[in-house]
Amino acid sequence: MSGRVFQVLQQLLQMRKDRSVAKSKMVKAEFDRVRNFNDQIESYATEYESQWMSAAQKGDTVLQLQTQASFGQKLRATAASQQPEIQSLEAQSKLALEKAQQDTERLKTLQNFMANKQRLKQKSLDQQDEKALEDVLQAKHRSS
Question: The domain spanning residue 65 has which CATH number?
Fold first, then answer.
């Protein structure tokens, strides 16, 4: 294959890697956002349960206790209903990260191959130059 083909392939792999890294970051950010929101809801639910216990000990009205308990339960239910989305985003995030790592590895492999090919080409050119110089020196030595 010509050097130009490898350069085009390298550019394609670079674009592919850039896209997969960007997607990985985007999915991870969405996962973190949803998970943090869910954690916040869980925290609110815990806070309302604590307030409910405090109100019960103080002897608040039954209606007030029921309202607080109901709100806490609704917060827990909301947090629980988000678990499938969180799990899905976590799985998507892991897959996107794996793809980004694979694309990065492919690009590195091609770059290493191209660098080795260039080194071999340069070594061959150096050997040709060295042989040409030896031929010139031998020719001069014979003519003297």
Answer: 1.10.287
Question: In sequence order, what DSSP letters do the residues of the chain get, joined into one string?
Answer: --HHHHHHHHHHHHHHHHHHHHHHHHHHHHHHHHHHHHHHHHHHHHHHHHHHHHHHHHT--HHHHHHHHHHHHHHHHHHHHTHHHHHHHHHHHHHHHHHHHHHHHHHHHHHHHHHHHHHHHHHHHHHHHHHHHHHHHHHHHHH-
Query: Are the C-beta atoms of residues 91 and 100 closer than 8 Å to each other?
Result: no
Q: Which range of residues forms the domain containing residue 113?
A: 3-143
Q: What is this structure's pTM?
A: 0.72
Structurally, the chain folds into a number of domains equal to 1
- CA 20 vs CA 33, 89, 97: distances in Å: 20, 16, 8
pLDDT tens digits, one per residue of 38-75: 999 999 999 888 887 887 788 777 777 788 888 889 99
Q: Helices 83-143 and 3-58 sit at what angle, rounded to 10 degrees? A: 150
